[in-house]
């Protein structure tokens, strides 16, 4: 075998190994591939965030007579430092849900909040206020509603959700989508359920996950995207690239030497 033939053979083998180790099948990267069938069989569903311990709530109460609801809209005064400069603006009081699931609310005292949805708590507070005001309108928001995305996404990090409602796909959109190396069929979602850590695996290539309780994310959910086989192999290759280069150089040198000896 001539020198040119050996070199060609070496490069063909190397190219084949790289190509086969980095191939990603189309079916592994397309989301919700059977969405048409799933939507035709789906039923309408509504989601409202359920309040849990350690949530921080902002509660705004309005009425035709705003003076009558002023006691419920407690304002935090600006902070003034020793130089008499204002360090913050006036803001509405926020309410931390304690370890027993209660908030301490003006006039009403301790009010159960944990376990209610936002709408349910709004109705509950409105009923409790009837002795003070007849036409109160209550709006409840969770202001520390956050989710975290890690792993094979383009912008990993923690994101605030102002609407208190977000799907898994929307969360992935916030993080700039999965990289091409992220496993779409094995997304890990970690959730705190009443102080107990739970987890599940979600397959985004199938539309079945829209029926899952993890389709809508809860506050403080963590989403972890694992690398696929190609990325794992590529990572191993990159870590050992200097070794591979040395071995390849040695092999090519050996091929050249033997080719010269056989002339």
From TrEMBL:
InterPro entries: Poly_export (IPR049712), Poly_export_N (IPR003715), Soluble_ligand-bd (IPR019554). GO terms for molecular function: polysaccharide transmembrane transporter activity. Residues 45-142 form the Polysaccharide export protein N-terminal domain. It comes from the Bacteria. Keywords: Membrane, Signal, Transmembrane, Transmembrane helix. The chain crosses the membrane at residues 241-261. Pfam families: Poly_export, SLBB. This is Polysaccharide export outer membrane protein. It comes from Nonlabens ulvanivorans (Persicivirga ulvanivorans). The lineage of its organism: Bacteria, Pseudomonadati, Bacteroidota, Flavobacteriia, Flavobacteriales.
């Amino acid at each position: 075998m001539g020198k040119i033939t050996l070199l060609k053979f070496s490069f063909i083998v190397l190219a084949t190994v790289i190509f086969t180790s980095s191939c990603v099948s189309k079916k592994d990267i397309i989301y919700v591939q059977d969405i048409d069938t799933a939507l035709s069989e789906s039923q309408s569903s509504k989601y409202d965030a359920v309040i849990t311990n350690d949530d921080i709530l902002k509660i705004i109460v309005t009425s035709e007579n705003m003076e009558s609801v002023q006691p419920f809209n407690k304002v935090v005064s600006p902070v003034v430092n020793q130089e008499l400069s204002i360090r913050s603006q006036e803001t509405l009081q926020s309410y931390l849900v304690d370890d027993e699931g209660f908030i301490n609310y003006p006039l009403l005292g301790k009010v159960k909040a944990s376990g209610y949805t936002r709408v349910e708590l709004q109705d509950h507070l409105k009923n409790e206020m009837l002795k003070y005001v007849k036409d109160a309108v209550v709006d409840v928001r969770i202001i520390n509603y956050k989710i975290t995305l890690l792993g094979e996404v383009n912008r990993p990090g923690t994101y605030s959700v102002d609407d208190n409602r977000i799907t898994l796909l929307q969360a992935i959109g916030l993080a700039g989508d999965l990289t091409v190396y992220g496993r779409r069929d094995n997304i890990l979602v970690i959730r705190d359920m009443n102080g107990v850590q739970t987890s599940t695996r979600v397959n985004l290539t199938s539309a079945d996950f829209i029926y899952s309780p993890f389709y809508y994310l809860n506050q403080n959910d963590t989403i972890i995207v694992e690398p696929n086989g190609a990325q794992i192999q590529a990572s191993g290759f990159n870590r050992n690239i200097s070794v591979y280069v040395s071995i390849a150089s040695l092999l090519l040198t050996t091929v050249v030497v033997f080719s010269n000896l056989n002339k």
